[in-house]
From TrEMBL:
Record flagged with keyword Ribonucleoprotein: no
Transmembrane segments: 75-97, 109-129, 141-160, 166-184, 213-239
InterPro entries in alphabetical order: AB_hydrolase_fold, DUF2417
Lineage, highest ranks first: Eukaryota, Fungi, Dikarya, Ascomycota, Pezizomycotina
One Pfam family per UniProt: DUF2417
Protein name: Mitochondrial integral membrane protein-like protein
Organism per entry: Trematosphaeria pertusa
Length: 547
């Protein structure tokens, strides 16, 4: 029974305690709440009944992308990838056509290799961005450490620094910075992932799904491959640093507006016969550097007294010479030789002795120095109608592919470690073909052989003086195995009207001087050419044609 009436609740009334609770709840419902953020824990938020307020660990909402710092780093990583791809494209083009002020005296393949490695690191970082792993941090740290060593070598070794130029330095520094960025990114994403798991699930997640494990495995395999690549590149740079200490006979002369330098040397002294200056022999090697066998034959002829003086040089990209800007034709090589002779203070008369593809350069040089060339000797030379053989697209692609992997230096490293190959072997000897500069020079010859170079040598043939003494020495093995080669060798005997001799040396390969019979025949014919050159006078009619 209720007491008095006033003690009893009226209709629609509630006890005072219940009313106070209702008023308090009403006030709380109207109080402004703090806006939840990425730092707000779920337990602090209104939650449905019978719920602990946490999300399932497999919920897609549990992601490090919830943090603006992580999203910003991903955007920057994509931006760096775009910059690297643009730089990669520019370097790829520069192999074939050198942009202004971007010419590298080296091969250009190292710059390209560092940029490829940079893009690889960034692609792994972007694709596997949300799945950081300790294995990735370890492998990326190893990559960064070796890249720092590469940067130190390039900056510390003067010869390599000169060859790589600012393009190579920028490429390796950028690769170092990107490797550090990838390590930093992985650390930040790992932190963000842990933070979001604690905030949204109540604890950091230690397990991974099968998909995540496969992603980590694939990313680790890729970065391990990158580790192997950078180790090989570092070893190759070490080999290059070692080779840069090899001394050379002669000097390096800047040409083409000081864009690159070529190696030039002379042996012997100027002599006179009956008051007339004797011609100096000018050697032009074929498919290999002059110092490899070809110059040795000339030195023997000098010691035997057959000749009194000879000079030789290395075409751009060969031995101690720098690479020239692309494109580079045989006529450009002839002009580089002319400039080198002028800067060295060398004057004719000259007897040009050339072999293989080098005969193309000598013939062009002869047509541009008619007053100074008093004799031509061609040893199994390349004919202009056969230039399509070295200018074929298939050969060009193989040279390009070989150049791309040349920074790995697998053959050079293997030869140095297991076969005892020396600096001489790698710079101008039997292993010179493994050098990136040499490959770039071969690629340059390939690109314009059947176009620019062919046009230049065809014009040179029309200009060539008809009374210049000419000696042709051919390989019997090459002629017997290639009928077209034999026909073109016969055609070379018609370059001038003053053919001294044409010898087809039995059992001699394309490098005729590699056999005793070949060396003997070449030295004999060179002696006859020297005597014939002393009688050469440029006819007045031909002098008038020059002007």
């Amino acid at each position: 029974m209720w007491g008095s009436k006033k003690d009893r609740p009226q209709n629609g009334d509630a006890p005072e305690d219940d009313q106070a609770s209702a008023r308090s709840a009403s006030r709380r419902s109207y109080e402004p709440r703090e806006e939840p953020s990425e730092r707000t824990r779920l337990l602090d938020r209104p939650r449905p009944p019978n719920s602990d307020g946490y999300l399932d660990p497999d919920d897609p909402a549990v992601s490090p992308y919830n943090l603006w710092s992580v999203r910003f780093m991903r955007w920057l990583t994509v931006f760096f990838l775009m910059i690297s791809c643009l730089w990669w494209t520019l370097l790829l083009i520069s192999i074939f056509v050198s942009p202004p002020r971007m010419h590298s005296r080296g091969s250009g393949f190292f710059d390209f290799a560092y940029t490829c490695l940079t893009i690889g690191n960034l692609l792994v970082a972007v694709i596997f961005f949300s799945g950081p792993a300790k294995a990735l941090r370890i492998t990326t740290t190893i990559i960064g450490a070796f890249l720092i060593i590469d940067m130190i070598i390039i900056l510390a070794v003067g010869r390599i620094r000169l060859e790589e130029g600012w393009v190579g330095i920028v490429s390796v520094v950028w690769a170092v910075l990107i490797s550090i960025w990838c390590i930093l990114t992985d650390r930040v994403v790992a932190w963000g992932k842990r933070e979001e798991e604690e905030r949204l699930t109540g604890r950091p997640e230690t397990r991974r799904t099968l998909k995540e494990w496969l992603a980590v495995l694939l990313a680790t395999v890729l970065t391990v491959i990158f580790v192997i690549i950078v180790i090989l590149m570092t070893g190759t740079l070490g080999i290059r640093a070692r080779d840069s200490t090899l001394g050379m006979y002669g000097e390096r002369i800047l040409v083409d507006g000081d864009k690159y330098a070529v190696h030039f040397a002379c042996v012997g002294n100027i002599s006179y016969t009956k008051g007339k200056k004797d011609a100096t022999i000018m050697l032009e090697a074929g498919e290999e550097p002059s110092e490899y066998d070809f110059e040795h034959w000339a030195y023997n002829a000098y010691q035997n007294g057959t000749i009194s003086r000879y000079c030789y040089w290395d075409r751009p990209g060969y031995a101690w010479s720098d690479n020239a800007p692309s494109p580079h034709s045989a006529g450009m090589s002839a002009d580089a030789l002319s400039e080198a002779l002028a800067r060295a203070g060398e004057e004719g008369p000259w007897i040009l002795v050339s072999a293989g593809t080098g005969s193309i350069v000598s013939r062009i040089f002869s047509s541009r120095h008619l007053k100074e060339v008093t004799g031509i000797m061609i040893v199994d030379g390349m004919h202009e109608d056969l230039l399509h053989r070295i200018g074929s697209p298939g050969r060009g692609f193989l040279l390009w592919a070989w150049g791309i992997i040349s920074p790995l230096g697998m053959e050079r490293l293997g030869g140095a470690i297991f076969k005892g190959r020396t600096r001489e072997d790698r710079v101008y000897g039997r292993n010179a073909y493994q050098n990136g500069k040499f490959i770039k020079a071969q690629l340059q010859e390939n690109l314009v052989a059947d176009s620019l170079s062919k046009n230049e040598v065809v014009s040179a043939r029309n200009i060539q003086s008809s009374n210049t003494p000419l000696v042709i020495v051919s390989s019997a093995i090459k002629c017997r195995s290639d009928n077209e080669w034999e026909r073109k060798q016969r055609d070379l005997t018609k370059l001038t009207d003053n053919l001294v001799s044409w010898d087809v040396v039995n059992k001699a390969p394309h490098q005729v001087w590699q056999t005793l019979e070949g060396r003997t025949a070449m030295e004999k014919r060179l002696g006859e050419l020297v005597k014939a050159a002393r009688k050469v006078e440029i006819p007045t009619v031909e002098k008038e044609k020059l002007f």
